């Protein structure tokens, strides 16, 4: 009896093994997924690595106020930038109180008090900021987008003021509870004592009092093929047809979606106007959807930062800015590069633009150069400063295409109030 039971058990095990082998060999593609939403993005050919949202959310610069109207600036590749930002990310901010910007004399705060400003240029939704900083949920505050965080101490006061500036421009939120002491802020500010000195101009931008050192670098470049992009963006690339435009660009379409390729600029524009809406959305959710889309449709060919997430009517424009060595790579009309731009409607990507080119890792040439500073820089800025048209001034890289490589030239990027960017070498 016992031997018969062993025989039956052995037969069952053998049959089970054969059945499992049959399923593994002959299963249909995609059968691992039990349920898949028609709106979910399909993983396609991997060209670049995926990226976590947290790695795309960081300030474009840090301004350190040393008191006595002295200042310096840390950029994202600076050692002290990373040290200060990592320490602030571990602190908790709670109990937000809404105030009017006009109720505080910020010129006085900037010149007289020691503190730290984190700049997020076009703004970052609070729901995303909560992914990198310990911000306690607050219904009043969570719907905002923040373009600046300012921490400062006032002589004679025991508390640290932590201010979150809304992109609306007239509102600031103070975290009444923050586990930071005056000594903590002083210690972080002290990192800027040996750094180059900067001067505030018209309450809007900073210029170094001496020349600024940057590295000019030449890098090899690779290029994604049109076939790779088709496989990445179309559900069935075999049914796409090619249309050649008079301007030399090409359009690939499956009658629903289209992929326009500018071979001269090596730039693609993908549109999916019939993309089904996925429901309610917000700038924060749309940014996460955009990141997911890039992860699944091409990946990230370098270091990127969330540069913009703005709503317009029923759509959200999300822009990711490429960085090299702590500085942004400019996108210019003459050479489109350095950004990824996506349009979303109700959380679904309807437009996606990016370059086909990508930087290889090892630089071919490096050279230390000096960007103009001090009075010489002020003289160059004078034509734009006279009518208060300068919105910001930052060091950046201007990409210059050679036959086989890409030269990144250090420049001053002058952004005007109307959004135009002018470069000063």
Automatic annotation (TrEMBL):
InterPro entries, alphabetized: YycH (IPR009996), YycH/YycI_2 (IPR042274)
Domain (Regulatory protein YycH): residue spans on this chain: 3-418
Domain of life: Bacteria
One Pfam family named in its UniProt record: YycH
Name of the protein in its database record: Regulatory protein YycH domain-containing protein
């Amino acid at each position: 009896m016992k031997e018969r039971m062993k025989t039956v058990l052995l037969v069952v095990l053998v049959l089970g093994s054969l059945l499992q082998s049959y399923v593994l060999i002959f299963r249909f593609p995609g059968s691992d997924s039990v349920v898949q939403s028609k709106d979910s993005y399909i993983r396609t050919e991997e060209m670049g690595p995926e990226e976590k949202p947290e790695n795309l959310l960081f300030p474009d610069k840090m301004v350190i106020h040393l008191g006595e109207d002295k200042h310096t600036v840390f950029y994202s590749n600076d050692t002290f930038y990373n040290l200060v930002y990592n320490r602030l990310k571990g602190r908790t901010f709670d109990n937000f109180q809404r105030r009017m910007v006009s109720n505080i004399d910020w010129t006085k705060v900037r010149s007289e008090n020691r503190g730290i400003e984190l700049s997020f240029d076009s703004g970052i939704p609070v729901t995303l900021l909560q992914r990198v900083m310990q911000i306690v949920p607050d219904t009043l505050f969570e719907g905002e987008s923040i373009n600046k965080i300012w921490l400062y101490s006032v002589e004679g006061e025991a508390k640290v003021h932590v201010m979150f500036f809304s992109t609306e421009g007239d509102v600031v939120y103070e975290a009444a509870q923050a586990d930071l002491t005056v000594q903590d802020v002083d210690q972080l500010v002290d990192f800027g004592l040996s750094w180059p000195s900067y001067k505030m101009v018209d309450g809007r931008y900073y210029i170094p009092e001496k020349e600024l050192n940057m590295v000019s670098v030449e890098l090899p470049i690779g290029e994604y093929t049109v076939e790779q992009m088709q496989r990445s963006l179309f559900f069935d690339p075999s049914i796409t047809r090619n249309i050649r435009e008079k301007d030399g660009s090409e359009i690939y379409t499956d009658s629903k979606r289209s992929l326009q390729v500018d071979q001269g600029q090596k730039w693609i524009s993908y549109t999916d106007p019939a993309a089904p809406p996925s429901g309610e959305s917000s700038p924060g959710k749309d940014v996460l959807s955009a990141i997911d889309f890039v992860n699944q449709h091409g990946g990230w060919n370098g270091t990127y930062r969330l540069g913009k997430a703005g709503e317009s009517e029923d759509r959200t424009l999300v822009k990711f800015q490429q960085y090299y060595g702590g500085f942004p790579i400019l996108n210019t009309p003459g050479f489109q590069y350095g950004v990824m731009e996506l349009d979303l409607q109700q959380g679904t990507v309807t437009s996606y633009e990016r370059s086909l080119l990508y930087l290889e890792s090892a630089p071919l040439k490096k050279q230390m150069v000096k960007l103009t500073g001090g009075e010489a820089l002020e003289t160059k800025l004078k034509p734009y400063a006279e009518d208060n048209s300068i919105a910001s001034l930052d060091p950046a890289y201007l990409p210059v295409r050679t036959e086989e490589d890409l030269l990144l030239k250090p420049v001053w990027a002058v952004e005007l109030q109307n959004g135009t960017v002018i470069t000063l070498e």
